[in-house]
Amino acid sequence: MGILIQNGTILTMHNRKIIRGGAIAIEDKTIIDVGKTHELKRKYGRGYEKINAKGKIVIPGLINTHQHAAMSLLRGYADDLPLNEWLEKWIWPIEKHMSPHDIYVGALLTAMESIMGGTTTVNTMYHYKPEENEAKAFADAGLRGVIGHVCFSWRKKEDKKALRDLTKKWHNKIDGLIRTSVDPHAPYTVDPEYLKELKEIKNELNEKYGSEETPIIQHIHVAETVDEPEKIQEVFNIQLKNGVMTYLDSFGVLDKQVIAVHCVALTDKDIETIKKRNVKVSHNPISNLKLASGISPVPKMLKKGITVSLGTDSPCSNNSADMFETMKTAAILHKGINRNPTLMPAEQILEMATIEGAKALSWENEIGSIDVGKKADLAIISTKKPHLCPLHSEISHLVYAAKASDVETVVINGKIVMENKKVTTLNMEKVMEEVEKVKNNLLSKLDVNVK
Ligand SMILES: [Zn+2]
Questions:
Q1: Which of 112, 139, 203, 353 is 20 to 30 A removed from 428 (C-alpha atoms)?
Q2: Who's near 299: CB < 8 A, 6+ residues apart?
């Protein structure tokens, strides 16, 4: 018994191949066949659950390569502030009071929002708690994810314990749906010695729990703002030349399993270093604009052949998990500031949100495109909407006109997690009720009730 999606326009994201009147056969977790509907119907007719995608677009599920899923609880809590003030005066003081259950509930909300917007994989960096955590939330929602524990110099012992527990309990678990990562917060909050140690821990954990096909990766914020080199110099009393990425490379912590987020303030040497070490990049245009951090030199990196993926960042620096918004913003932002409308065309943007996202997470052997043998992670988008009419180009519509709310059905790991806009794994009303409860409880714990 499997699933047969039929009569759709399939954007495979493999060599930009499009199949009209196409079908996808799924068995268990895996795509077992892709082709024309009339051919697949003959082979997989009986016993297969049918999904009619007539007049709809089928894409590989979108891959959000930077999130802090639990922070949805703080969506709209503090806006319009500089990054330092926002983090130090607003976000970190309230996060201190977050219980494991709060983290679970916040991540559940992000998981639900992600699924509803056609996102099937989320790379999230947050505080891991053994009792309840983001991994449990994603597993309960049926969302694929890389779950990281964020590390800081001031809590090394606690971090190391959390990393070991997280990896042991969750890496490559839930039918391969959940993977884990080692997440140094940023070069200005993690000292060089600890950065080196965390890379060693990543290697050790890979030997014990990972493999070449299922690696434990590293996820870190890098060069988010132009004053980051100054901050590093000040905090660690270090002389820094040639940019933050080059600084990181000087003590050997960069490799192909590192995903560097933001990469706004890069030197030319930094870009060369990213290329040389095959570091992957997560571009978060909306968060960078909202926090006025600056604009990442993405076209330059793409020209060099660097893997650049897309992320939303946290629900309080974006403030949504909508990857359609992120795709459009990335496309128009770089055209605008470079005064060049030919930069970052729609096809390339859609690749950044799918197959390049998979590469950024070292997961392209299983996700990111619609290919036989890959895991069935798919989103089906309705085009019967005024804003998607008339239809000249599916790719154009997806990047420039579609919204998260146009996604109708979502399959992750071969399981239908949303059908005709109804999430099958969670009770939406109950989750939202619990979020409000948790939010009010959290606010009541603050020393001074600021709101
Ligand atoms: Zn972030």
A1: 353
A2: 334, 338, 343, 344
CA of 8 to the centre of ligand 1 (A): 36
Distances (CA, A) of 113 to 69, 142, 247, 322, 404: 10, 12, 37, 8, 9
Which pTM value belongs to this model? Answer: 0.97
> Who contacts 78 (Cβ-Cβ below 8 Å, separation ≥6)?
86, 90, 91, 316
Task: State the number of CA atoms in the 13 A half-sphere of 304 facing the CB.
Answer: 22
215-235 exposure pattern, b = at least 16 Cβ within 10 A, e = fewer? bbbbbbbbbbbeebbebbeee
CA of 177 to the centre of ligand 1 (A): 22
Rounded to the nearest angstrom, the distance between the alpha carbon of 388 and the centre of ligand 1 is 32
pLDDT in tens, 366-412: 999 999 999 999 999 999 999 999 999 999 999 999 999 999 999 99
**Cβ(8)–Cβ(54) under 8 Å?**
yes
Give me 214's structure tokens: 């299922």
**Tens digits of per-residue pLDDT, 130-162?**
999 999 999 999 999 999 999 999 999 999 999
Q: How far is the CA of 411 from the centre of ligand 1 (A)?
A: 27
